[in-house]
Structure formats: C-alpha cells, structure tokens
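worker-03 picked up job from queue 'complexes'. Input manifest follows; six sequence lines, order preserved.
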Amino acid sequence: MVMTMHPRKRIILKEAASLFRIKSFEATTLRELAEHSGIKGGSIYYHFSSKQEILLNMMDFSMSELIFTVKEAVKNKKNSIEKLREAIKTHIEYHINNLDMTVVADSEIRSLTEENHRFIIQKRKKYEKIFSEIIEEGLREGVFHIKETKITTFAILQMCTGVSYWYKEQGSLNVQDIVDVYFDFIYAGVLGLCGIRTDIPRLE
Amino acid sequence: MVMTMHPRKRIILKEAASLFRIKSFEATTLRELAEHSGIKGGSIYYHFSSKQEILLNMMDFSMSELIFTVKEAVKNKKNSIEKLREAIKTHIEYHINNLDMTVVADSEIRSLTEENHRFIIQKRKKYEKIFSEIIEEGLREGVFHIKETKITTFAILQMCTGVSYWYKEQGSLNVQDIVDVYFDFIYAGVLGLCGIRTDIPRLE
Amino acid sequence: MVMTMHPRKRIILKEAASLFRIKSFEATTLRELAEHSGIKGGSIYYHFSSKQEILLNMMDFSMSELIFTVKEAVKNKKNSIEKLREAIKTHIEYHINNLDMTVVADSEIRSLTEENHRFIIQKRKKYEKIFSEIIEEGLREGVFHIKETKITTFAILQMCTGVSYWYKEQGSLNVQDIVDVYFDFIYAGVLGLCGIRTDIPRLE
Amino acid sequence: MVMTMHPRKRIILKEAASLFRIKSFEATTLRELAEHSGIKGGSIYYHFSSKQEILLNMMDFSMSELIFTVKEAVKNKKNSIEKLREAIKTHIEYHINNLDMTVVADSEIRSLTEENHRFIIQKRKKYEKIFSEIIEEGLREGVFHIKETKITTFAILQMCTGVSYWYKEQGSLNVQDIVDVYFDFIYAGVLGLCGIRTDIPRLE
DNA sequence: AATGAATGAGTGTTCATTCAT
DNA sequence: GATGAATGAACACTCATTCAT
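worker-03 finished. Artifact:
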C-alpha cells in the first residue's frame, strides 16, 4: 500500500478528513480547508478538480487501505475463529488510527455523487464480504451458530465501526483492551446460545 | 405521548425527516422541503422559526418518544434478561417504524447549534442510561458477565440503531425475525463466554 | 383642526410614528406595528391600504397641523419680531409635543413614493414660506438685517427642528427655557451685526 | 489623512455614500451597490464583510477626517472668534465637498448596530466638543454671551450640517458666500443681544 | 373588524469555482 | 504552484400584501 503523493495534496487530504469529520462535508468550505492546509482557496484546484473529488479520493483511499490491511491480516490464519479475531482487531485498530477518515467514510456516503456513490458502495460490499465469508466458514466448520449471516455481518461491522464515534485517546482503555471487549462480545454472539448450552433461560 | 400539532406543521416535520435522511440536513433546501410539504418556501416560517428549529423539533420529539416508549416497555419486567429483551425489541421496532426520524437523530447531531447540541446529547445520555442500568442489574444478579458496561452499551445501541441503515421493507425478514437475531446475538454477548462454558476455544 | 378617526387607526398612526422614529420606516415591519397596536399583521389593511399610506397619512397630518397651528399663532401679532417669536415658539413647542411624528416627517421624506414626495414637499414649502415671509416683513420694516432670506429660513428651521433630536423630557430645561435660548440666538442673528453696532470686531 | 485603499474598495465606498444618501441605507440593495461599483453582488464581500461594515467604514472615515480637518484649521487661531469662524468655515466646506458621506453620517446613525452606534456616537461627541470648547473660551474671554453652551453647540452644528440638505452646486451662491451668511448669523447669536446693545426691543 | 395562513418577490450573504497573473 | 479578484447560482430568511373565514 505505497502512496506517492504531492506533499501538499497529502496535507489537504488530511485536513479535509479532520474538517469533514468535525463539521461534515457540506458544512466545510474550501477556503477553510485551504487555510488549514496553508494555502489560499483557489490553490486547492491545482491539486483537486473539485470538492467532491477530495471526498471521493479520501473515501477511496481509506476503504482500499482497509480492505488491503484486513485481507493481509486474515490471510494466513488457519481457522474461522482466528480469522474473525484478526479481522475485528485490524478493523478496530485501523479505525482508531484513522479516526477522521473512517468517520467520514462511514458518515458521508450520502454526499457522494451518484456515480461515486456506486463506486464506493461497491468497495464497501467488497469489504463486508471479507467478514461474511469468515462467518460462513465458521458455520461450515460447525463452530459458529447463527441464523442470518448478512444481518450479523452488518451488526458486527456497525458496532466495531462505532468505536470511531466514542473513542477518545485519553480514555482509560487502550486499543488492545477495546479489541478484547469487542471480540469477546462478538465471539459469544457468533458461537450462538443454542450451540453453547441448553440450560440458558429462553424467554416466552 | 399525545401530540396535538397543526397538520401542516406535522407534514413539514415528516417531509423534513425524509429529506434530511436522504440528502442530509445541510443539503436539503427549504424550498425543497416546502415543495414536498405542499406550500411555498417562505410559508415554512409561519410554522417554524428556522431550519435549525425543524431539526431540533424532530430530534427532540423522536428521542422523547423513544425514551418514553422503551421505559414503558421495560417497566413491569421482572428480571434483567426480560428487560434487555424488551428494550432491544422496542428500540428496533421504533427505529424500523420511524426510519427517517431515527436516522436523522443518529446522523445529524453535528448539525445542531451548540446549545441544541447540548440539549440533545443530554437526552441521548438519558436514553443510554436505560440500557446501561439493565446491564448493571444483570451483573448484580450474576447472570451477565461482561467487563465494560459503558462500551457494551454503546456497542449494543450502535448495532441496533444500525438496523435503520440497512432495513428495507421488502426484505425477507419481518421485524420479529430481526429482533430475534439481534437479541440472540446480544444475549450471548452479555452472558459472556466465561459464564457459559469452559470448553470454548480461547485464542492465544 | 378637528380629527375624527377610527380609534384603532389613531393608535396605529401613533405607534407607527414611534416605531418609524426609533427604527426608521424601512426597518419597521408591519407585524411589529400591528403588535404594538394590539392587532395582528393582516388587520392593518382594514385601516390602511399600505405601509406607504401610513407614512403619508402621518406626514400629511403633522405638517397640516403644524402649518395650521403656526399660522394661528402668528395671525394677530402686529410686528415681524413678535411674529417671529411666536412662530419659533410654536414650532419648537409642536416639535417637542410631537417628537415622534416630527422626527419622522423630517427624516423619512426619502421613503415617500415619487407622487407622495411631491405632495409633501409642496406642504413643506408652504410651511417654510410662513417663516420667510416674516423675515421679509422684518426686512421691509428695517428691523432685520440679513442678506439671504431663503438660506436664513432654512438655517432657522433646521436648528429649531433639530430640538426633536436631542430633547429629553427629563432634561433640566423646560420648553419655555429652550424657546428663550433659541429665540435669543435667532433674534440676534436676524437683527444682524451691521445693524446692531459698529464696534463689533469683524474678521479680515 | 492619507488613505491607502484598494481602488475597488474606494469605489464601493463612494457609490455606497451616494446611494445611501439618495435611497437610505435600508433601501439600498447590495446588488444595486455592486452594479454601481462595476462588479456583481457577491463580489462586494471580497472587500467588505457586510453591508453594515460599509456603513461603519464610511461613517468612521468621514467623522475622523472631519475631526482632523477642523482641529487643524482651528489650531493656530489666537482668539475664540477666529476659531469659531474657522471651525464653521471648515465644517461647511467639508460638508459641501462631501455631500454624500456627510448626509449619510448625519442621517443613518440609527442604522448602525448597537456596538457600532456606541463607537460613532463617541466620535460625534468628540467633534461637538471642539465647538463647545470654543464657545466656552469665548465666554471666559467675555466676548460671547449665551446661557446654554450645549444647546447652542447643537443649534450651530445642526444649522451648519443642514447645508448638506439644501445645497445644490448650480445655486447662485458659492461656498464662501454661504460661509459668510452662516458665520454672520451665528456670530451675532453668540455675541448675544444683552451684550450688544440695550435699545433692542425685547418682547413682553 | 380581525385573523390565520399563505404567497412571491426580494434581501443579505455564502461558496465552489474560474482564471489572468 | 499559488494567488487575488471575481462570478453566479444558490441559500436561509424576511416581509408587505392577500384573502377566505
């Protein structure tokens, strides 16, 4: 995942992620972004053809990197449990290490033009597939017990992505702690109640 | 939760929820909202003093109703498991029955003015407390086994609220099915691996 | 100068004068005026056909009354000095007793439509004529000594009308005191230096 | 009183003075002002942050320049009569040479925001002080005879400022003539009747 | 006489974008 | 690579005015 990029372009992208996260894409003005990037409004257009392109660039980059990183992490694991653990760990770590970009990627999909929207949704589905395939593998192996793969994938990703919205660096938990809490929670969930023990009180 | 309101005001609020969800608060214009509401741009201001007030009104209403509804549902349940189930059920049902408002309430907090932001965050915390108290009750009863109440509450709410983002009416699952999937998943999570059985393969 | 008028109409006119004076005609809204008059915005139109008509009505009334009152006061005075004194006295008294209307009449001529503008300017000229005729009489009598009747009339009226801009009811001077100060000042002015004494030091 | 200013900014200020004088501040639209300035509506905001700022800028500039110019003119005069003459002369000349700005400065104080209002009123008081101090000097010297310094100052300034409202370039009098008429009038006024001669017929 | 609800034309202002320099 | 100055289309919002009730 090598990135060669004009340093100013990189700065703009970084500042854009920060501003878009805090104020939203719509509410961020190009002059504001320029000022944060150390240049004047019009100069942005030397590096990007439009505000939309900045958003697309950012989303594309972060999703590609996320897909690549998670795939790398999962590649050599031998069973579904280990794969799931690595995927969750990498997902959360990436989100915490890239709070700005990941929050924007999660919350500004609406702001993409139709064409860009299709393109990014495609990537997102590709990413979700990594997780749903792990779950399906666990089901085949007989170790996971859940009824709805797709919904469960959504649920897992939503709760893990959600970390970006409450995480504060000065909090008492470090990243590893957070990963543990989430994995334990999810692991129990995918193992499933029925598959675990029969004496658990069911309702009604 | 009775609401007496000028019918046109109600229409505006409903259309605003729909538009804000699809296009975002920022990207929705008042003329657009007016057109959807069957009046001309300026007439909105007979019913609301500003665009911001529409957003606030909507968020305030939906959060108040949600708090009220979940509290009512949980009130007479006798143990933490039943309470959690009812809370999850009611949360998901309310979100599915009010997709527009709940997505807006979840995604447009940034668009509130400082004062309104404080006000709504307050309400949100009040709502989260309902869930964290149930979890704490379960911990005291010795039936739940989790380490981080606060984070777990966030995780649960984020995944359940997430339903609003993927739910489609024409999907194969009805609301009850969805509630079951989510409850089973969460129930396993809060019971905790350690409390369930010891032969589950732990990693590392 | 009898005025029969619907009481509400009179109230509107009075409140309009007050608001127009404080905020200007342009900056005063009809809703505001209506509220001050104890009715709702649209109801103004039962009494007046437009905002402009309110302004015209007010100006017309105050100028007519002023012309009438000053003419009455001057009528039976036998010489130009007494006439001038009465005119100044009545002008200042009327302005102090009708601060709102007179300030508006003085400052909002620009806000009249072309036709109304012509109409009011006509009245104003008629009023100025009262003063310039007194001065001309004094010149003929040989008691006044000034070179420019027209300019002097303007100067006198501007300084006397100016009272409306600084007068405060709780001030230390009563109306009679103010009239004395102004009359003394103007009287000396119209008597003229040359006609008074020759030993006054002239410059250059 | 050197002013370095972007030429377009200077143009806007000049056109604004002209339009504000003719139509009032409130009734002048930014698009109108822009058109008169040779640019499009939005471009005004490159030079000024708001319409209000244009008004403030104009008033501040004209009052500062007036204060400076009158103070300069009066500085080296040796007695109160000469000082008063110079002050009146400079005031009238400045007003005639800057009709637009001075009329606006006189008539649009109401249109200033609270803070700006305070600021300009401060300056105005500073200007009035120049005149009242001259009068007080004349009183101490025993050459002026008036009872109310403050009111007399108001009266003098109001009549002199009033020139802006009736002055027309094509009139028969040149600036020097006008100054003479006003000075003679005011000079007689401040010398006072009592101090001049005793055989002047007093009333009542 | 008065009002609730609406209109439509306009207001100041914003902002992504352009482009000559 | 960057900027100063401008544009034009849009925006939230205002307000005199209308009119059925």
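worker-03 released lock.
Chain D has one domain: 51-195.
Chain D has a mean pLDDT of 93.
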